[in-house]
Structures are given as C-alpha cells and as structure tokens.
UniProtKB/TrEMBL annotation:
<dbReference type="InterPro" id="IPR013217">
    <property type="entry name" value="Methyltransf_12"/>
</dbReference>
<feature type="domain" description="Methyltransferase type 12">
    <location>
        <begin position="181"/>
        <end position="283"/>
    </location>
</feature>
<protein>
    <recommendedName>
        <fullName>tRNA N(3)-cytidine methyltransferase</fullName>
        <ecNumber>2.1.1.-</ecNumber>
    </recommendedName>
</protein>
<dbReference type="InterPro" id="IPR026113">
    <property type="entry name" value="METTL2/6/8-like"/>
</dbReference>
<comment type="similarity">
    <text>Belongs to the methyltransferase superfamily. METL family.</text>
</comment>
<dbReference type="InterPro" id="IPR029063">
    <property type="entry name" value="SAM-dependent_MTases_sf"/>
</dbReference>
<comment type="function">
    <text>S-adenosyl-L-methionine-dependent methyltransferase.</text>
</comment>
<keyword id="KW-0808">Transferase</keyword>
<keyword id="KW-0963">Cytoplasm</keyword>
<dbReference type="GO" id="GO:0030488">
    <property type="term" value="P:tRNA methylation"/>
</dbReference>
<dbReference type="GO" id="GO:0052735">
    <property type="term" value="F:tRNA (cytidine-3-)-methyltransferase activity"/>
</dbReference>
<feature type="region of interest" description="Disordered">
    <location>
        <begin position="1"/>
        <end position="21"/>
    </location>
</feature>
<dbReference type="GO" id="GO:0005737">
    <property type="term" value="C:cytoplasm"/>
</dbReference>
<keyword id="KW-0489">Methyltransferase</keyword>
<keyword id="KW-0949">S-adenosyl-L-methionine</keyword>
<dbReference type="Pfam" id="PF08242">
    <property type="entry name" value="Methyltransf_12"/>
</dbReference>
<keyword id="KW-0819">tRNA processing</keyword>
C-alpha cells in the first residue's frame, strides 16, 4: 500500500483510494487482518454502553470560571497547539478528492446543472480521515472582550481584513472562475493537496484559521503561492470580522473537523455567514465527529463543558454531532441536503491487538440555484 494512503483504507487497482464503506467485517475472527473496517454495525449492547459512558463522563461539568477562560483565551490554546506541533501533527488529506469530488481537478460542477443555469456560469474544471492514531483538531473561536494580548501577525492580518473594501470586481482571487474556501485550515493539510493536485489556472483557494501561528506556518510553507492562494486569520464566530471575498462568490466551502471546535450556540450564525458566501449551486462540505466516537468515550469526568461538548487536556474543545443536528444547522442557513452520512469505522492496532470504534459524519449541502426562465429550480439528489 502506498505511503500516502491512510491506514486501513483499501485502494483500487489504479492506486486510488476508495470511498469509505468498501471493506466489511463479515468474520469477527478476521478483525486483525486489516487496520480498519467500514460501516461497522453496533449491537444494542454496545450502543447502550456508549450512552452510559457519556452520561458518566458528563456528570461532572467544568466550573463556570474555567469555561469562560477556554472561550476568551481560545486563540491562545490553539496558538500553543501549533507552536508545539507545527506541521507534524496531521497527515495531508489526499482522501478528500475521493470523498468530495468537488475538490478534484477533473470535477465539472456544471455537469449536473440545468442548461438554463449553465449559460449564467463560466466553464470551470475542476478524520479526520482514516488515520487511527491522530485525533483531528479544528480551529476554534473566541468570545468578545478578550484581554489576552494578540500576537502581532494576527493583529496585522485582522486589521487589514477589517478595513478591506470588498467589491465584486477587486478582491483576492477575483479573476478566478472556481473558488474554494477552507475554514479551519490548520497548517494546510487540505489546502496544499488541493493546490498540488489541481493545476487549473482558474482555481483560487482561500484558507483561514483562528490561530495566527497556523496561518504563519501556511504562509512560510514552500508550497504556498500567493497567486493561487490567500491565507488569513479569521474568527469564525466574530460577526464583526469581514471575509476577503464578496457574497455569492464561492463554489466550495470546506469544513474538516472545525465546526466541532466552536461553542454550540454560536454554530448557527457561523454557518449562516458562510452560506451567504456561496454562489447559487455552490456546496458546503463537512466531515466531523459523530456522537459516541471513541474520542468522546475516552473523556474523563470534569472535562465536559455542556452536553456532548468537551475540553481536551491542551485547552482546545470539541463537540460530537448527530446527523439531525447538522441537518438542522445547514437547512436553517438555507442550504439543501445532498449528502448526510455516518461513517462508523472499526480501527485496529494489530500490534497491540486493540480495537477502536470511530464515528464520523460526512455532509454535503448545496445552495439553491436561481430560478430558471421557466421558474424551475434544480434540487440535487439527497443521500
């Protein structure tokens, strides 16, 4: 198996990674033959045990004073995380091109659109993932009134964005015809594979993160090309911060293990703002933690902030979703469901003879197309 292929993920004969759901454990005696098994069904006993574990580790909550600290100083905890790990914590997410073809260079987003809609568009081409050892982190956000000193690089970028006059004719990437934004980009494990794989001169990629340290690591990476990419510091929850592109300008927005890192009661407004950036027909792609994932069951008493929302030992936070919760967030933002799937995966440490049950949710929601001449609107097929 190629080194770039995530552990436990089968490949096709041409070396490409298959979508999840292609390796099934039919014989429990073979559980340690591979590193991972897809679409593993949970027994009623296993599901009940997971629910009991969550009730147990949620019975003692973090005190209000500490909760305020984790919110107000969230940027500090994420900066510290990236200062420690730099760009060595996560693997590049090449699997995204299989799960989300919208990010692949061969993707033609106009293929499924009505002809009436096509004439209004220019031609465009086109966990975390399955690594069992790493627990993905996303960007977080801070509350207002933070009294912690902001690093100079974050202050500079934020000031520039705050005074940036966004217009339809002049903004970073304004000449591109296919635009992708990754929110919570970290050190570029999604952005750089996109840029490396897609040489389309009409593609422009934006990436933002709450951590100024992470953005600095992106900009100093040898693969960073300002003519094809624009990286900036951004607080997903700060409604006063501007995005460096106008509304209705993006084809794809990517949220990979990032929404789970913000306070639940701020999620809806964050998704609403992002939805406004999508073009009609544009899509929002998400992969994030699902309810009863191994990571949730491993938390101890005293780490729970609120229902299904926890703080890690390093001060970063994580929420564990259900499909219905995510569907409610996206549909309330005016988006339509294309995909909303649970990826239940059994990951295996064959050396230590350990089994680990992971639960991720993968979503794709689209912005409704503008009505055509006959008043019809195309609705994507939902799964």
């Amino acid at each position: 198996m190629a080194a770039s292929s995530p552990e436990g993920v089968p490949e096709t004969q041409d070396g490409k990674r298959r979508q999840f759901g292609n390796r099934f454990l039919s014989d429990p005696a073979r559980v340690f033959h591979y590193n991972a098994w897809d679409n593993v069904e949970w027994s009623e006993e296993q599901a009940a045990a997971a629910e009991r574990k969550v009730q147990e580790n949620s019975s003692q909550r973090v005190c209000p004073e500490k909760q305020v600290d984790y919110e107000v100083n969230a940027h500090k905890y994420w900066n510290d995380f990236y200062k420690i790990h730099e760009n060595g914590f996560f693997k590049d997410r090449h699997w995204l091109f299989t799960e989300f073809p919208e990010l692949a260079p061969s993707h033609n987003p106009l293929a499924d659109l009505p002809l009436e809609s096509q004439k209004h568009e220019e031609h465009r081409s086109g966990e975390d993932g399955p690594g069992w050892t790493s627990e993905p982190h996303g960007c977080s956000c801070t509350g207002h009134g933070c009294d912690t000193q902001v690093p100079p690089v974050e202050e500079t970028v934020t000031q520039k964005l705050g005074h940036l006059a966004i217009c339809a004719d002049e903004f970073p990437g304004s000449s591109a015809t296919y635009r992708i934004l990754e929110v919570g980009c970290g050190v570029g494990n999604t952005v750089f594979p996109i840029l490396q794989t897609n040489n389309n001169p009409n593609l422009f990629v934006y990436c933002c993160d709450f951590s100024a340290t992470a953005i600095e690591l992106v900009k100093t990476n040898s693969e960073y090309d300002p003519s094809r990419c624009f990286a900036f510091v951004h607080d997903l929850c700060d409604e006063d911060q501007s995005y460096p592109m106008p509304k209705d300008s993006l084809d794809v927005i990517v949220l990979i293990f990032v929404l789970s890192a913000i306070v639940p009661d701020k999620m809806q407004k964050a998704i609403n703002r992002l939805s406004g950036l999508l073009k009609p027909g544009g899509v929002m792609l998400l992969r994030d933690y699902g309810r009863y994932d191994m990571a949730q069951l491993r938390f101890k008493k005293g780490q729970c902030l609120s229902g299904n929302f926890y703080v890690r030992g390093d001060g970063t936070r994580v929420y564990f979703f259900t499909q219905d919760e995510l569907d409610a967030l996206f549909t309330a933002a005016g988006l339509e469901k294309v995909q909303n799937l649970v990826d239940r995966r059994l990951q295996v440490n064959r050396g230590k003879q350990l089994t680990m049950y992971r639960v991720w949710i993968q979503c794709k929601y689209s912005k409704p197309l503008l009505p055509t001449a006959n008043g019809e609107v195309s609705t994507p097929h939902a799964t």
